[in-house]
Amino acid sequence: MTDFWKLLFAWTLLSAGKGWSDSPAEFTVMAYNVENLFDVDRVSPYDDYIETPGDLNSYGPSKLARKLKTIATVLKSVGEGKGPDVVILNELELDHTAESTVPDISEFLKKYSETTYEKMLSSELNDELRGLPAEIWLLKALEDEGLKGYTIVVGETPAAGDKHQDAITNGLLTRFPIVSKKTWETASARGILETKLQVGDATFTVMGNHWKSGAGNPVMENKRLGNAKTVRDRLDQILQEDPKSDVILGGDFNTQYNQGQRYSYMTKTAIQDVLGSQGDATMFQGEGKPDLYNLWFDVSPEQRFSDEYNGEWGTLIQMLVTRGLADGKGVDYVPGSFRQLRVPGVNSRDPLGLPWRWTNYGPGWGASDHFPVLATFRVGGEASSSGEALPKTSLPQKEAVKVGFDQIDRSKLRSASVLKDASSEELAKAMGEYFMVEGTLSKIRPLEIDVDGKPYSLHSYDKNLKDAIRVMAKGSQVKFVGELGLYKGKLQFVIRDPSWIK
Predict the structure, then answer these.
(1) Rounded to the nearest 5 degrees, what angle is found at the Cα of 179, between the Cα atoms of 144 and 156?
(2) Which of 87, 147, 313, 375 is the most buried (most CB within 10 A)?
């Protein structure tokens, strides 16, 4: 046997072992709200992200470095360290120092290839580096952390944006060639970032969303109706040109996948009534509308969550697909692959597995107030006429899933006494942790408790709970479960559930 045939035979065996001969290529798409990834140019519409000399709790270079490290750690938990191939990003700071724009990113990365983002944000930091946009810091950090090959697209600034539109924007990380990109302006929210990508011989479109906030607020829902119409109008244009276009819609929609059921007082919803989100998978084999499928319906109801608010799980981070993503041509969604991404100890914390929110306290700690969601797609799959290759058909839940504040095992909680001599880093890491708190009620208005000689504010989002505490006499000894937090620069304990004071 000649050397050529030996090599060919070996390659054939290797291919068969890896399944290359009978499995199409697959890739992963993620939607990730990184919770205010800001640069360090000291220019920001948000006071919390302006560096203030002498204020140890203000934002700064070391906190940016820590945020970048955490983002990279979350991404590296996908694909055996390779990371997702496409990432829809929410809450990237819009650059406010245009003179520091990087015209050639590859040249920039080459120039700084002999150093690290951590050194650049510490011992090597200068005025030129301070001016770098957040997305450049992100790319540099990902390169240094071994997540290579990304290109980044950033949404354009609206012509007359308000504070939130002018502060943060959407972005897209991709390892695939970019065919086209455009930002569609939408009222009271970040522009919709549309990017067309090439994978092999196929193309697909990603539409990055970050709609107006306030999921349960009817006034805000009226604004989101406009956000949804912007997306729906553009999607109709795409599907009119090709009804089987492969389009992925993702990001922070600031609305629940079951918005109409969860908030029955809303007569019309943006995500369901205007955009057309739904969970009947037979639409993949039909024509006309409905023409979108929300991937949360491909997950068991008790696993539908990406965020928490007032003790209830939410699904603000979503991903929707058009019927072209199940036709066996071009790009297809892999049924059953959609999920939220929880990395214990990094972006998810015990005992309830809630998102580990970022805090600027001390040296900073945490990840984001949302879990990323991700799904797998394949190139060149085969459609199934029997429906076996389709996602699940499911109905929206009528009620929210509770996170389980009343299920906490008190025996596993640390005593708040450990905080008395804690370092700033230990306190930063403890933000959001639940403690057994024993102390003296030292003030009634505002509520304050003394624990081992250290004062803490006392708060509850439940007015009835606050009133129940206020009927106690000043100087009373109290014992409860409290969540450590920070309010107006002062440490506080938050009581999140009536069971916490029993």
Answers:
(1) 70
(2) 87
Bridge-based pairing of strands 26-37 and 86-93 is: parallel
Round the average pLDDT of the chain to a whole number and report it.
92
Domain boundaries, the chain: 22-379, 405-501
pLDDT tens digits along 68-105: 999 999 999 999 999 999 999 999 999 988 888 899 99
CA atoms of 150 and 142, how far apart (whole Å):
8
* CA separation for the pair 150, 347 (Å, rounded): 22
Q: Are 450 and 476 in contact (CB under 8 A)?
A: no
**CA atoms of 131 and 39, how far apart (whole Å):** 8
| Three-state DSSP state, 492 | strand
Let me know the angle formed at the C-alpha of 167 by 182 and 489, rounded to the nearest 5 degrees.
155
Average pLDDT, stretch 381-389?
Answer: 50
Alpha-carbon distance of 321 to 54, in angstroms, equals 49
- DSSP SS3 for 221: helix
Sign of CA dihedral 486, 93, 152, 334: positive
Residue 290 burial (C-beta neighbours within 10 Å; 0-12, 13-18, 19+): middle
Give the lowest-confidence range in 47-61, 161-175, 195-209, 279-293: 161-175
Q: How far apart are CA 368 and CA 238, in angstroms?
A: 33
- Do 405-501 and 22-379 have the same topology in CATH? no
Those residues whose C-beta lies under 8 Å from the C-beta of residue 442, and which sit 6 or more positions away, are 448, 449, 450, 455, 474, 475
Please give the CATH topology (third level) of the domain spanning 22-379: Deoxyribonuclease I; Chain A (3.60.10)
pLDDT at residue 375 is higher than 90:
yes
Residue 157 has pLDDT above 90, yes or no: no
Summarised one tens digit per residue, pLDDT across range 230-287 is 999 999 999 999 999 999 999 999 999 999 999 999 999 999 999 999 999 999 999 9
Strand partners, 374: 30, 339
CB 405 within 8 A of CB 497: yes
Q: How far apart are CA 287 and CA 469, in angstroms?
A: 59
User: 14 pLDDT band (50/70/90 cuts)?
Assistant: very low
User: Half-sphere exposure (CA, 13 Å, Cβ side) for 145?
Assistant: 25
CA 194 to CA 240: how far, in whole Å? 17
Task: Report the pLDDT averaged over residues 3-26.
Answer: 41
Topology, domain 405-501: OB fold (Dihydrolipoamide Acetyltransferase, E2P) (2.40.50)
CA distance 170 to 152: 11
Name the pLDDT band for 164 (thresholds 50, 70, 90).
Answer: low
Please check whether residue 401 is in contact with residue 305, taking contact to mean a CB–CB distance below 8 angstroms. yes
Cα separation, 239 vs 246, in Å, equals 9
Question: Using an 8 Å Cβ cutoff, are 431 and 486 in contact?
Answer: yes
Encoded amino acid at 422, one letter:
A
